[in-house]
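[Automated response] Your request has been received and processed.

Submitted sequence:
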Amino acid sequence: MEDEALADIADRLYAGALDDFVAERAAAAKEVATQDKDLAAAVRGLPKPSVAAWALNMLARHRPDVLDGLGELGTRMRAAQDSLDAPALRELGRERRTMLADAVDIARSVAQEQGRAIGDAMASDVEETLRALTADIGAANAVASGRLLKVLSADGVNDVDLDGTVALPGLLPAPSARNAGAPPAAWRSTAPKAAAKVTAPKTRTTPARGSQATAAKPRLEAVRQTPRPASPPALERAKAALAEARAAEEEATRLAADLQDQEEQTKAHIAELQQETLELRTRLKAAEERLERSRKRLATTAAEAKQAARAADKASRTAMLAQERVLRLGRN
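Generated structure:
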């Protein structure tokens, strides 16, 4: 099918290096232009992703397990929201914060391995998109496709706006066609991988005059996003968001109290250390004074010892001379 050929090329482009995207897109369009001008036009119309979206595409292709884990967490969070289970939402909120931090670190590492470092601002966009993944099945499907064009955002009440955020949206599985409890791996695009060779489509018969205008349109225009299922009533979504917000408030209040206790304990410990430091400085000063006095006594003692040694030497010579005189007088 021609859509499969377009998907093959798109997968190859969105799996490649971001800096090479434009050149690779032009080369791919040129390659198929002689056999299918419409396909070539559709390829030329594939948008270049933002840096943050590219990083997420790399994460989807090289570490899909990260998205699987977040998708499974999102399923549990939506179940807790539906039942207005505040304790479960509080616990899941803590789990999501940890998983998001780990996922962003992995995304930055994968992007670095693929030749492009992402800064803190783009890392924040990556985290916001992954948070949207946990809140909305359609967002999870878009991220898992590996063809994301822009970052996503979720407010916890309304569905994530996916317009213009993913290439070839009509080739994504419909949200209603999959089990809402299935992990992202079960509804990731099954298009051939980037390394697959794109073959020229079979020769087609000339379309009738009335269908030429439609055939001439790029496939990106012809592909339509599959209608999404009806959203739950706004009141139910608002109640779920309120339950999650209250759970987050309770968690934040508890965390603030814990941190305040830690602050008081740290202040008390600092005061103890300051007192101990003062005492040690006093002891050090006293020891230095004793050391100085001992040095002075040592210098005085050394000088007296030298003087005593000289006096002893002089007395020894005097005694020797006296002995010799006694001997002389005795002989006489």
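Summary generated for your ticket: Residues 2-199+216-231 form one domain. The CA atoms of residues 276 and 282 lie 10 Å apart.
If you did not submit this request, please reply to this message.
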